């Protein structure tokens, strides 16, 4: 292990098929006004929306909603969410969905009390948060991004043809995340596969850097082995809970910054993939799969041992 580092991850995780039961306990820690953020409506079809709404109402919360968060959240959607959050004077943002929904919730959380243009401040100048941050909680329904346990967020600006991520510090991490593998079982096969590519690339971006004997690399190898094993099972049997639970847990650990410790990391595949996504709006995992093999063939002569 080379260098010096600090590791702190303040996100509290609830994992398993009964994990949503912990939401009511977490809600006791926050005020009355909740902003519920979700995507295209699949949570209403599979019943997760009703479960969450009932818990919020039983907890006596006032609920505002931001539906329709797209796979690549836009600056226009961010501005819409900030306006709703300010009007509702929200005490907690609850993201129910996949990584894009979680990313979006964090972008809203750092923008509500920001007195500057959040796109310019956070995604062009890459400045840190200098205002109050509204806390975020997540109920995860798709795996891949690891957004449930990190401070990262990605926003797309179609006018400028830019899709830019900003990884904030631990102060922007979700305060809690609820991970029920059953919530991922209804995903279409293409979305599930895109998640696999996303997870693998998160690990590879951190793995393919440095040549020292690094404990983080051994952890990464274990995560990659688990992902390959479980994803092959899930492709053949999408309802296999054991496989899907292992994939969900691997996804979280792939990008909660643990395996980056003692590493320089790369992230060039993500930069290339996000550039493609800015022009095409293609699913993030699929843009990574499109550019990753070419890139790794290019860098292979510089890291043959690994």
Strand order, biggest sheet?
A: 1-8-5-4-2-3
Number of helices: 11
Mean pLDDT over the residues = 94
How many angstroms separate the termini?
16 Å
- Please summarize the sheet with the most strands: 6 strands, parallel
Number of strands: 8
Overall geometry: globular
Structural write-up:
The protein has 306 residues and is an alpha/beta fold. It has eleven helices and eight strands. It has helices spanning 23-27, 42-45, 48-58, 75-88, 99-111, 118-124, 189-207, 215-236, 241-254, 268-280, 284-299, and strands at residues 12-15, 33-38, 62-66, 92-97, 136-140, 152-157, 162-167, 176-179. The strands form two sheets. Strands 1-8-5-4-2-3 form a six-stranded parallel sheet, sandwiched between helices. It has a two-stranded antiparallel ribbon with strand order 6-7. α7 packs parallel to α9. The longest helix is centred in the C-terminal third of the chain and has 22 residues, at 215-236. The chain is globular.
List the main descriptive attributes of the protein structure presented here.
single chain, 306 residues, alpha/beta, two-stranded antiparallel sheet, 11 helices, globular
Give the arrangement of secondary structure elements.
Elements: E1 12-15, H1 23-27, E2 33-38, H2 42-45, H3 48-58, E3 62-66, H4 75-88, E4 92-97, H5 99-111, H6 118-124, E5 136-140, E6 152-157, E7 162-167, E8 176-179, H7 189-207, H8 215-236, H9 241-254, H10 268-280, H11 284-299
């Amino acid at each position: 292990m080379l260098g010096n580092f600090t590791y702190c991850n303040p996100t509290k995780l609830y994992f398993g098929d009964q994990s949503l039961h912990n939401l009511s306990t977490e809600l006791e820690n926050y005020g009355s006004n909740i902003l519920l953020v979700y995507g295209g409506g699949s949570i209403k079809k599979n019943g997760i929306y009703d479960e969450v709404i009932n818990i919020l109402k039983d907890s006596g919360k006032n609920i505002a909603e931001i539906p329709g968060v797209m796979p690549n959240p836009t600056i226009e959607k961010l501005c819409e969410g900030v306006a709703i959050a300010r009007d509702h004077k929200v005490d907690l943002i609850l993201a129910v969905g996949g990584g894009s929904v979680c990313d979006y919730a964090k972008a809203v959380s750092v923008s509500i009390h920001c007195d500057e243009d959040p796109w310019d401040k956070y995604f062009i100048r890459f400045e840190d948060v200098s205002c109050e941050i509204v806390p975020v909680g997540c109920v995860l329904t798709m795996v891949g991004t690891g957004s449930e346990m990190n401070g990262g967020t990605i926003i797309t600006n179609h006018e400028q043809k830019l899709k830019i991520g900003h990884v904030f510090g631990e102060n922007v991490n979700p305060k809690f995340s609820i991970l029920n593998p059953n919530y991922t079982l209804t995903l279409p096969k293409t979305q599930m596969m895109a998640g696999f590519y996303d997870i693998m690339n998160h690990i590879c971006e951190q793995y393919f850097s440095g040549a020292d004997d690094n404990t983080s690399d051994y952890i990464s190898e274990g995560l990659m082995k688990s992902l390959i094993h479980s994803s092959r099972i899930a492709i053949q049997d999408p309802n296999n809970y054991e496989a899907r639970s292992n994939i969900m847990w691997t996804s979280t650990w792939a990008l909660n910054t643990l395996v980056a410790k003692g590493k320089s990391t790369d992230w060039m595949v993500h930069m290339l993939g996000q550039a493609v996504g800015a022009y095409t709006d293609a699913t993030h995992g699929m843009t990574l799969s499109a550019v990753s093999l070419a890139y790794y063939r290019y860098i292979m002569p510089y890291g043959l041992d690994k």
